[in-house]
Amino acid sequence: MSSFLFSVNAVLPVFLLILTGLVLRRLALIDEGFINVSSKLVFKVALPALIFSKISRVDFLSLLNGKEIYTIFFLVSGGFFLIFFLSGFFIKNGAERGAFVQGAFRSNIAIVGLAIIINVFGDSGAARTAISLVLIFPLYNIYAVMALVIPLQKENAGTIKMILKAIVTNPLIIAVIVSLPFSLLSIDTGKVFETFTGYLSNLTLPLALIGVGGSLNFSTFSEKFSKALASALIKLVFYPVLVVIILLAAGIRGESLGVIFIMLGSPSAVSSYVMAKAMGSDSDLAAGIIVLTTLGSVLTLGLGIFLMKSYGLI
Q1: Low-confidence ranges of the chain (pLDDT < 70)
Q2: What pLDDT was estimated at residue 76?
Q3: Sign of torsion over alpha carbons 258, 261, 267, 271
Q4: For the residues of 49-113, what is the DSSP string, one character each?
Q5: Mean pLDDT of the chain
Q6: CATH number for the domain that contains residue 29
Q7: What stretch of H or E contains 262?
Q8: Phi, psi at residue 107, to the nearest 5°?
Q9: By C-alpha distance, which of 265, 287, 283 is closest to 212?
Q10: Could you give the residue ranges of the DSSP H alpha helices within 88-220?
Q11: What is the pTM of this model?
């Protein structure tokens, strides 16, 4: 019973906020404009402040785990190439294949994943996640472009430049880099600045999760449901199960196991819809995958945390 309550307390508050966003959108209390502005505010201001506040107050070197970093690189890269290769056998439409692959491997780590990790593991889990994001975000950008461009057989000369720009200018990566000297040198930011970043940090998860709920669109299911469901099952079931098996075989347990499972088992990133639309892929399919994975991850993440807690793995 204690393991069940632990998993419920970790997952349910996050998805209640997503549900709140969905209800507020249906009641017309928030609209597309609010969602767009709040998303920019979260991505460029509040979330970097959260990452800074978490990393700057912990011992970075104690959390930096080479084995963990290599494992994450292997899992993200291996997952992408496996899904990309297998999808070619049953999805012949290039636009659909790109959206399918991106939805099946790209996680909403910075919002949904981070919120659950904080609930489960607290500040150390949040700091560990922030450090991992430095590796994962560039990989996600590179593989997402590959997934969307290659099936359409496009020659996009600006692709490499676009990826590099996205990495260098990513506010979350910048926040990690800026926070490192404070962590490594144990620099005290002072009470005023600590309170200031705390206020900004407190905006992050409620505002972001309400935005996720408000952006869910159920109108795309009729024609795209079967492919969206297949991608969602890979994202929420087959890929996370494979991840856990590999981690256990590698001898990874405890907080590292839980953090990586939640990161890679989180629902598809909302940004996958934006990229699919911008690069000529199937944005309706991308939207359907986001809806299914966001709703389905209530069960899969909760069940995964419950089972690992029950067997003493985390």
Answers
A1: 1-3, 58-64, 153-164, 166-167, 219-223, 274, 278
A2: 93
A3: positive
A4: HHHHHHHTTS-HHHH--HHHHHHHHHHHHHHHHHHHHHHTTT---HHHHHHHHHHHH-B-IIIII
A5: 83
A6: 1.20.1530.20
A7: helix 254-265
A8: -100, 150
A9: 287
A10: 94-105, 114-149, 159-168, 171-184, 191-215
A11: 0.81
Contact 294, 18 (CB under 8 A): yes
Is 268 in a helix, a strand, or coil? strand
Residues in the chain, how many? 314
For the chain, how many structural domains are there in total? 1
For tokens 């940090």, the residue is: 201
What region does 153 belong to: left with phi over 0, alpha with psi -120 to 50, or beta? left
Most distant pair of Cα atoms in the chain: their distance:
58
Q: How many other C-beta atoms lie within 10 A of the C-beta of residue 146?
A: 18
CA trace torsion 77, 82, 85, 90 (10° rounding) = -140
The structure tokens listed for 133 are 């994001």
Kindly state the tokens that stand for 100: 């399918």
